[in-house]
Amino acid sequence: MQKKIWLILMILFYIGAGVNHFLHAEFYLEIMPSWIPFPAWTVQISGGVEILLALLLIFPVTQSASAWAISVMLIIFFICIHIPMALDFDGWDDWLWWFAIVRLPVQYFLFRWAHRYTKGNTVYFWGNPDRQ
To answer: 14 near 53, Cβ under 8 Å?
Structure first.
């Protein structure tokens, strides 16, 4: 039951994060590293991917693959966006720099959270076939 609650929270978290990319795109554009081409498009695509992967966590047949994809996405974001973002700001007096610094260790916990559902221990929201 606890694993199901954490999965529901993760689904809601990634749906919320994805929707936030559309509602507050200007924020994401502000923190986007300068080397990324088509930043507005990238913000929208990443938001859509987060929503899609969250929804795929609901279904037992796609749950593990979605959790793997979220794990990979987090690693890519960490290396390609979050680290460069932390290095791109002037530092102490810039609140976005502090946001970038705090966000780095948070990525580890988000990765561990998603990775928990990659191991084939599927969470069923309805009709568990093992209970027949």
So the answer is: yes
